[in-house]
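User: quick one, fold this
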Amino acid sequence: MPSSLPAWRSSRRRRTPSSLLNKIGMAKADYFVAQQAYADWRIVGLLLALAFLANIGNAIVLRADAPA
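Assistant:
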């Protein structure tokens, strides 16, 4: 029975970071340094989410103080 998946999805083999390293031409150590830099961006995303929640909380608290 033919698969309805595209050819690139029909492969059951999972790609490993080592196969990616061969494609992008980076040394293994350089690859992991780059990945660590991207991982640090999640902290920025967390801070942005917390700032957004703090603004919503502030708006709720200050809404009661608004003049009628």
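User: anything notable?
Assistant: DSSP finds three helices and no strands in the chain.
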